[in-house]
Specification:
Blueprint: H1 2-19, H2 29-45
Length: 57
């Protein structure tokens, strides 16, 4: 789930960077890049995954 969110954030940051758009100080491409990297790191850490690790009986 976090990987999909990261992909959407990266896409939005790329579009804002290409368009040279200034939405506000809170939504610069660099801020969105950091938010995307955070979501990607959480995904790689295993948060938000539906996979249950353990034994089935």
């Amino acid at each position: 789930m976090f990987a999909i969110i990261a992909a959407v954030i990266f896409g939005l940051a790329l579009i804002l960077d290409w368009a040279n758009a200034r939405v506000s100080d809170a939504f610069t491409p660099q801020t969105l890049l950091m938010a995307g990297l955070l979501c990607l790191a959480l995904h790689l850490a295993g948060l938000g995954s539906a996979t249950k690790w353990g034994r089935r009986r």
